[in-house]
Amino acid sequence: MVQKFEFQEIDLNGAYLIQPFYATDNRGGFVKDYNIDVFKDNGIDYKLKEVFYTISKRGVIRAIHFQLSKQQAKLVRCVSGHVYDVIVDLRPQSPTYGQWRGFHLTGENQKTILVPQFFGHGYLVIEDSVVSYKCAEVFYGEGDSGIMYNDPDIGIEWPFEAIGGTENLIISEKDLNLMSFLQYDNMMR
Length: 189
Description:
10% of the residues lie in helices and 42% in strands. It is mainly beta. The chain has a single domain, classed as Sandwich (Jelly Rolls), CATH 2.60.120. Strands 1, 2, 5, 6, 7, 8, 9, 10 and 11 form a 9-stranded antiparallel β-sheet that branches. A two-stranded antiparallel ribbon has the order 3-4. A hairpin with a 6-residue loop joins strand 1 and strand 2 (16-19). The protein is globular, with a radius of gyration of 16 Å. The relative contact order is 0.23.
């Protein structure tokens, strides 16, 4: 049986939207969202070092997270529920530096985002969700950082109407105190 993946390179160099292999029969379904050989055959050198899941309630927003050292490339997939997933190019030398792209990831569409190193990543939970992270580097707490979800210089257009407005946001104390894009830019230059 051919196990077909579809790879669509996003216009932020190095990022991909991936449709994993999915098969169904009368018992249900089978999803394979990573295979080292299939990825290599498609020009993506990606090796796993850590896998974890987040379980989030509707209205949770996870700001634009990244590691300042030991950057993590990651495969992100919504296993169940619905999230609006956002990536931000944080490579100062990149022609798309500071640009963002957003994607609706759901348990039904099974789409996966390959978030490259030196990118920020966050999402808004539209339905109670479980999100899978398959990381190419282990989490390094000392380098953990992020940018505010509502930073005006990045200008992410979050679909807040899908959760009934910003009054329904659930945000961590940590995410309320992240740096701005301008602070990040000054630190990187």
